[in-house]
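Review form for a predicted model. The reviewer records the input and the model, then writes brief findings.
Reviewer: anonymous (R2)
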Amino acid sequence: MTSLAAIILAAGKGTRMNSDLPKVVHPVADAPMVRWVVEACRAVGCERIVVVVGHRQEDVRTVFVDDDPDEAPIEFAVQDRQLGTGHATLCATPALEGFNGDVFVLCGDGPLIRADTLETMLRRHRETKAAATMATAKLDDPSGYGRIVRDHAGAFTNIIEEKNATPAQLEIREVNPSYYCFKAPALLEALKDVQRNETTGEYYVTDVPALLMQRGERVEVIDAVPPEDVLSINTPDNLAAVDRVLRRRLGMAEAKA
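Model under review:
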């Protein structure tokens, strides 16, 4: 069996949350939101999990202090500057030096993630021997998300960040909810070639699939993420809405106001 790992991006500040806490530490259904992402990775068989931390990193580290030692261990990587998802992923690569398996790259602020979705991605990834596999979602309102760009035949070409999209690209409803699975060596090599975005000054992990395709590698795109799971958490109101969804899904009582 091919080994499986995960990189979870959890270094963001969450400036609109009206709190100095890292966004991923805020509770959803009675657990820090990053905990739900970690448990989904464990459920699908990840043997190693690297959490990228930054702002108030000790708060994130504390979430996992009392973990069961028999569970997949948590390793931490530090992103000391906020230079985008590509840079955050690059910060995790020393922890996976020499790792030849598959690796998920996921965001720590997506607590509605399902292990079933990761399993679907992984199955497609391995069956097709892809270098990268992405799970996408189709939303009635795609505002705020990178768009999945396809050619006239429907084949994937690249991901365009909303800030860089043309008016026509902004009409695309298929979005990138940041669910990636890579062959680890392919990811590590491609990250070296990610260029700083001229508009934002950041490095995007979204550039990696197109870079891999330019090298002749196979990239799979699967519409596998239910729209409900893509709900963003950027404000306290967003947090409350996602909390309600997850509690309903788990059969839990709603939180008291």
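Findings: The first helix runs from residue 33 to 43.
Further findings: The longest strand covers residues 174-183.
Recommendation: see findings above.
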